[in-house]
Amino acid sequence: MQVRQVFGMYFDSHCHLDFEPLSGDIEGVLERATNEKVDAFVTIGTDLQSSKSARAIAEKYGPKVSFSVGIHPHEASSLDKRAVEELMEIAGAGPVAVGEIGLDFHYDHSPRPVQRTAFADQLDLARDLGLPVVIHSRDAALETLDILRAEKAFELGGVVHCFSYDYSMARKILDMGFHIGVTGVVTFKNAHDLKEVVKKTPLDSLLIETDAPYLAPVPYRGKTNEPAHVVYVAGAIAEIRSTGVENIAEATARNANRLFGKR
Ligand SMILES: [Zn+2]
Ligand SMILES: [Zn+2]
After folding, report:
1. What is the number of the ligand closest to the CA of 103?
2. CATH at 165
3. In the chain, which stretches have pLDDT less than 50?
4. Nearest ligand, measured from the Cα of 46
């Protein structure tokens, strides 16, 4: 494997380059990211179409842009046998993960039993493909743990992205060998639980992400987010952990390369 110099470079482990308005200006988005030393990205699939778009973007702008395939819990109702076959086909092009998959009991855009089934089925898919998983979990901590344990997800590895639970949940996720994905929410004043999680989580289990175009960190809160802004996520983590931002950049890039580079 090629040894990459990652010191001081940032890895945005979760963004949606196929979503507007990013999709209309991907070259500009990547150029602004490069200017901030953000030089690696995973663009995440959320349904069949988005997984195809993510693949196309990765093929066009790779190798620094990689992609994942998966059906978001919001779209869980769309996962049938044919969709699984299509995901398998898209996966032929070499995604680095299956995701984002999981449970969202905050919005409940798909019925909960359907979300559970889609989640478990896609953990199976990840196993078949030999890939780690990117988990979306909101207001569904215990159910998420139950399914991850029942499906022996510790054998797959992965990340709970946009982590939104307290440290006791983080501990259980970490005990499964999973990573904690931290978004711009960590820059928000009232994010007490997340700041505690960031402080206590071992550095080799943290990933940084934008979830762009959503969740812009301070000082862009409320505006369109883009991968360049992941430096503010790293900056907030560095401040909480009383260390240099380059340490956070280096460690989280190493973690992301290890997690997503194992194919
Ligand atoms: Zn998500
Ligand atoms: Zn996302």
Report:
1. 1
2. 3.20.20.140
3. 1-6, 262-263
4. 2
Please enumerate in sequence order all residues whose Cβ is within 8 A of that of 61, keeping only pairs 6 or more positions apart, or say none: 26, 30
Closest CA to 200 of 177, 227, 225, 180: 180
Residue 2 lies in a domain: no
Model pLDDT, residue 14 = 98
- Assess if residue 179 is contained within a domain: yes
Q: Quote the ligand 2 centre to 103 CA distance (angstroms).
A: 13
Domain tally for the chain?
A: 1
End-to-end CA distance of the chain: 11
Phi-psi region of 160 (alpha: psi -120 to 50; beta: other; left: phi over 0): beta
pLDDT in tens, 233-260: 999 999 999 999 999 999 999 999 999 9
Q: Which ligand is nearest to the CA of 44?
A: 2
Q: Is 1 inside any structural domain?
A: no
> How far does the centroid of ligand 2 lie from the alpha carbon of residue 210, in Å?
9
Give CA–CA dist 231/228, Å, rounded.
Answer: 7
Dist. CA 91–CA 87, nearest whole Å: 6
3 Cα–ligand 1 center, Å: 30
Ligand 2 centre distance from Cα of residue 15 (Å) = 6
pTM value? Answer: 0.95
Compute the distance from residue 160 Cα to the ligand 2 centre, in Å.
Answer: 11
Tens digit of each residue's pLDDT (9 = 90 or more) over 153-192: 999 999 999 999 999 999 999 999 999 999 999 999 999 9
Share the mean pLDDT of the chain.
94
Output the CA–CA distances (angstroms, integers) from residue 222 to 24, 136, 212, 256, in the order listed: 20, 21, 12, 27
Give the range of the structural domain holding residue 72, as residue numbers without chain letter. Answer: 10-260
